[in-house]
């Protein structure tokens, strides 16, 4: 849940990037980190293995600016994508305000995408959230690769509820900020509705 | 929603800071942080400028979440106190009122025994304040108090954030 501090006039929100292993969640955060002005970002923390696979989470705090005199901060987290890190994934979803599902567009990763999306829905439910009710967007990553699934098929399999969706290539940054903006906007609209 | 919105008001913020400032003195600590279980920093006193407080908050919450997961695996509800011993500095991490994490950083000028003793007392005081804060937030929500800053937010406000 977002944290509203009237004393220091701050609002903090938590965004979690979810998706199968090696789909580009960490790469998304790295690109945001590289392209954000130093005064707007904190340190990026990656708890990863020696082979750069996320072990627990990546964390990137962003201070975007003020809305109605309140400093608006977004804390970006990624989960470890590999199937056997499920216990860690559950922990990171605690208190989430918005979710980005990063799908790997490559044909051979479709099963992993579907499995990860089911896992997301299930883990959210366990925390008392409904994926259909929280701010949520989908990113189809790796659109630059040759062996990719068509947009229509990705949509059919991974976005039946028609939430905002973005094509991306996280290594070059294409679609990365569009995705982030979209989920941030949904969170703020949700906050507004909440009262 | 499963979790109540975490809200902090001026009055309680001052009371909380008074408690942790007192704890800082009495426990001879270097820095004290209060962190929400979701990883949001609530407040910090002492030599806070020497540390990356946002990262500390997020990692502390991750740490508490991970040890909480461990606790459940062995049939415990949670581990309410964690202690990390370093060469010079140590971290004493405890859960206050089931919801908030209290982090005390101290060196050889203090001791684990002293910190534990003082933390226990401060925790009781903090629990009372946080209970009151939660009640107040719930009441305000029910009475649909309009001071909520985002009630009149426009699309332009949101777009401006990203310009």
Helix content of chain B: 40-55%
What's the mean pLDDT score of chain B?
90
Order of helices and strands of chain A: EEHEEEHEHEHEH
Q: N- to C-terminal separation of chain A?
A: 14 Å
On the 0 to 100 scale, the average pLDDT of chain A is 94
Q: Mind telling me the CATH class of chain B? A: Alpha Beta
CATH architecture of chain B: 2-Layer Sandwich
Rg from Cα of chain B? 18 Å
Elements of chain B, N to C (H/E): EHEEHEEEHH
Cα gyration radius of chain A (Å): 16 Å
Largest interface: A-B, 47 and 42 residues
Number of strands of chain A: 8
Can you tell me the CATH superfamily of chain A?
A: P-loop containing nucleotide triphosphate hydrolases
What would the principal axes of the Cα set say about the shape of chain B?
A: globular
What would CATH call the architecture of chain A? Answer: 3-Layer(aba) Sandwich
Q: What share of residues of chain A is helical?
A: 25-40%
Q: Whole-Å distance between the termini of chain B?
A: 31 Å
Largest sheet: number of strands, sense, barrel closure of chain B: 5 strands, antiparallel
List the keywords.
heterodimer; A: 195 residues; alpha/beta; Rossmann fold; 8-stranded mixed beta sheet; 5 helices; 8 strands; 28% strand; B: 163 residues; alpha+beta; Beta-Lactamase; 5-stranded antiparallel beta sheet; 4 helices; 6 strands; 21% strand
